[in-house]
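seq:
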Amino acid sequence: MKEINIFSLTGMFAENKDTAAKLRKEVIDIAIENGEKIIIDFKKVDSSTQSFIHALISNSFQKLGENALEIFEFKNCSHSVKTLIRAVINYSLE
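struct:
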């Protein structure tokens, strides 16, 4: 199991899509290849941009489809972060 603390990388506002893309390539994609579950913890993160969430998870959901729902867990999400995650997952699965 791989746990990722977003606050330690972004602070209270997760906005840098390059940081998210790097995290996806260097941590998330490798964890998926190794068959690990991924916990993304948004503790202390008040908000995010949709582009950050998209760069972080969209590729995985597009590749894995609904199976990605079994791999990812999102913890300590504010209402606005939850809303963005749901939106990205929904359009990534379409």
